[in-house]
Amino acid sequence: MDFLKQPIDQLREDLDILNRDWMDIEGSNLSANQCYHLETNPPHFLFNLNCPETLQQKLKSILDKYFPKNENGISE
Predict the structure, then answer these.
(1) CA 29/CA 21 separation, integer angstroms
(2) Pick from 67, 76, 20, 72: which is nearest to 45 by CA?
(3) In a structure prediction context, what are the per-residue pLDDT tens digits for the chain, which is 76 residues long?
(4) What are phi and psi for residue 57, nearest 5 degrees?
């Protein structure tokens, strides 16, 4: 869908910035993108079991920035 291209591209740019940072996850230095997978239809993340809650919240806030949810919890 063409109308999703711009928000998805912006989302990926934000994720690229986040993924440049290495973090300690369960005693191993990992890139953030090793903890999640982005699905685009509908836009959402799948998190690995070792993904810290703080990273999950940061990813969800980035997703909400480009795909805000309405009162029903469905992306607009």
Answers:
(1) 10
(2) 67
(3) 455 568 888 999 999 999 887 777 667 777 888 889 999 888 899 999 878 888 899 999 999 999 887 643 555 4
(4) -65, -40
